[in-house]
Write a structure and sequence with these properties.
TIM Barrel, five-stranded parallel sheet, 16 helices, single chain, alpha/beta
């Protein structure tokens, strides 16, 4: 079998400055899952950008990590604080990538509360060698499709720099309406990694399509994890939405032309087959969601997942790294 390189796109880190900023926020803007990043093994793994991270990559079978600041990024911060942190975070990230250029890449951290500054920072970060940016579905109460954020989409499209749309926790009112009342432990998981994150992010992806973002910026490329954040499994039914929005193209066509899909560490052969059937091998990338699934991913599991899949060597290489490398080669630096 032909050797292949594996590049993971949803591989996280955190900084002390980001943790401090999140903890200073009013409780309504604090992410429901931030506690997982603040203590214990997960915090230790997130803050390490060297030897231990590289060893973990070797264990799971990952050749390259594309690093990104973990959720909720800078989306809930005041504009001035977010702008200051984006530069510091991206400078650290660029230095880290330069120290391990064959093992690490990066997604820019973006101060979306200040969209014009975020657009300029994306341009700077791409010039530094980063490969696009990480965004989350909302900026406090504003959804990402709000016209305020279109300058960022314009910049990303002009640069041909992809944006990874990552989950964040639903707003408190949404959690209260849909996810609470089953006991604290169940409520917490229900609203986050149980299912809430995926519905939240899938809704945001659909909003980007329905609001006309991709019609206005047809070169914009967005990456969605967790096998399409639920949307992929109801995409044909969701065509009714496209008709109601009077989209220029069938809704499924936007996903096939403007959206890439990753597994986010869910090494599920059934989901892989469904994704291939719906959007094709050319729209699939790879991700392990480091370090949040380290306890679940056995030694060599990333490589074993791809080796066990019913794929040709060419298809396997595309998903593992080829599609991503082709996407990065098109970035205008």
């Amino acid at each position: 079998m032909k050797p292949f390189k594996i590049i993971g796109l949803e591989e996280h880190f955190v900084t002390a400055a980001a943790l401090t900023a999140w903890n200073k926020l009013d409780p309504q803007w604090q992410d429901a899952a931030k506690g997982a990043t603040e203590e214990g093994e997960i915090k230790r793994l997130l803050t390490d950008l060297g030897k231990e991270r590289l060893a973990a990559m070797d264990k799971v079978g990952l050749d390259v990590q594309v690093l990104s600041l973990t959720a909720p990024g800078l989306h809930s911060l005041a504009s001035a604080e977010a702008v200051a942190l984006q530069k510091d975070t991206n400078d650290l990230l660029a230095d880290t990538v330069r120290a391990h250029p064959d093992r690490l890449q990066g997604f820019a951290t973006l101060a979306t509360p200040a969209p014009a500054a975020a657009a300029r920072e994306l341009e700077r970060a791409v010039a530094l060698g980063l490969n696009g940016g990480m965004v989350f579905g909302r900026v406090r109460e504003r959804n990402l499709d709000h016209l305020d954020f279109w300058p960022l989409f314009e910049a990303a499209a002009a640069l041909r720099a992809p944006l990874y749309l990552h989950p964040q926790s639903p707003l408190p009112a949404v959690r209260a309406a849909y996810y609470n009342g089953l006991g604290d432990a169940v409520d917490s998981v229900f609203a986050t990694f149980g299912i809430g994150w995926y519905y939240e992010t899938g809704v945001q992806l659909l909003r980007l399509i329905l609001s006309g973002v991709f019609d206005r910026f047809p070169d914009l490329q967005v990456i969605a994890g967790h096998w399409g954040e639920v949307v992929l499994f109801y995409l044909e039914e969701a065509e009714h939405l496209g008709q109601a929005a009077k989209l220029k193209r069938p809704l499924i066509d936007y996903v096939r032309r403007n959206v890439f899909i990753t597994p986010s560490g869910s090494f599920n052969q059934r989901y892989l087959r469904w994704a291939i059937e719906l959007v094709g091998v050319e729209r699939l990338l790879f991700a392990t969601d480091y370090p949040f699934l380290v306890a679940e991913q056995a030694s060599g599991s990333a490589r074993r997942f791809l080796l066990d899949a019913d794929l040709t060597d060419t298809e396997r290489e595309k998903i593992a790294s080829g599609n991503w490398e082709q996407l990065c080669a098109a970035i205008r630096r």
